[in-house]
Design goal:
globular, 268 residues
Amino acid sequence: MSCWDTITAYGLRSIGIGEQLLPRSDFTLCQQFTLIGSGMLWNIYFGFFALVLGFFLATAVAMGKASNSFWVRKPSEWFIFAFRGSPLFIQFFFAYFLFLSLKAQVPFFTPLTSAAYGALFVLFLNTSAYTGEIFYGALQSIPKGDTEAADAYGLSGFARFRKIIWPTMLRLAWPAYTNEAIFLFHATTLAFFGGFPILKQRGDALYYANYFADKTFNPFVPYPILAGYFILLTMVVIGIFGLVNTRLNRHLPQERRKKLRIRPQIIR
């Protein structure tokens, strides 16, 4: 089988398209690159949707934590504390067995016992908590002069939030939020190892890398390939977030524009 035949056969295997049987012997570099790359589709899926959905919940959580109302502030604080105070790996296990118990009573929870929805839901809540704390810190750092200028122009309520508070919050939080986005994509490798089952051997990139490492007894080929894919993905995330950062700071003089400083989180 040529490399092109391997790509057409296994390129979309992780989502159920193409050859269903995994190679059993005579593993080639092309097979490893193709199957691990195929598994990356799941990692991109988890990271993208958790990031997009979590962005809006995080904004609401940050505003809730900054609220003067006890009944709004405390649930936001507890939500952030619960998800930031416990390991993500444990959250996956707890969520899976919780959904498994609930689906017997409420059929609505049945889809959440699959990784496609259940693991995504956990990642969504987890990144919402971390991002909510980042956004809250940015809210506390908004210059007083900005809000005073809004008051002077007669802006109040939602117009004040939309035109002054929210854009300034994003501008201040964006460098830290970029690091959270990078970590979120890295954290997607836990989705299929945190309790949620792998159906029909259709796992993510780490699953296929682990498969080849077990079969060849040589982890020094599949795992560097996996790392290379994530480095490329990280560069794409940095590029996209860098463009957004430039857009958010376009009104500032060149010397005052904040540049992204990527600081990988070794321990969360």
